[in-house]
Design a protein that fits this description.
single chain, 140 residues, 0% strand
């Protein structure tokens, strides 16, 4: 099924936003799990802060260039199909990342420090995805 290049760009942005929102919710849930283990612990703010800082760096130097490259690739398609919002390889990588994320979250259950680490990782990815999404709107 053929679609317009603009539709592909919107689809790519939607996938980006969904990933960012899901990771933000997951990271917050992990923090609540950590808080349940140690309610008076102040380190959750540190996990959020590290996640935001690392996420902004990832956004600027990794995710924004990836978005630009993907948009340029979409512009070069002669007969765009709906599944071409990303390269085929991306979908396999996405499945692997989701599997890894679920596995890390399960391994972290009940371990305060592991929960904080996975939460910081998820916050960093969420911030990177959400802030780099501006590229989709600047280039549409």
């Amino acid at each position: 099924m053929m679609v317009s290049k603009n539709t592909l760009k919107i689809l790519a942005a939607v996938v980006w936003y969904i990933g960012g929102i899901v990771l933000l919710l997951k990271a917050t849930d992990l923090l609540f799990q950590a808080y349940a283990i140690q309610p008076h612990w102040k380190v959750p703010a540190l996990a959020i802060g590290i996640g935001i800082l690392v996420g902004l760096i990832k956004s600027r130097f990794l995710f924004m260039p990836v978005c630009r490259k993907n948009l340029a690739r979409i512009d070069q398609l002669s007969r765009p199909r709906f599944w071409q919002a990303y390269r085929t390889r991306f979908y396999f990588e996405l499945a692997a990342m989701i599997t890894l994320g679920v596995s890390l979250s399960r391994m972290a259950e009940g371990d305060l420090h592991f929960l904080m680490g996975v939460s910081a990782l998820d916050y960093s990815l969420a911030v990177a995805l959400l802030t780099s999404s501006i590229v989709f709107w600047r280039n549409s």
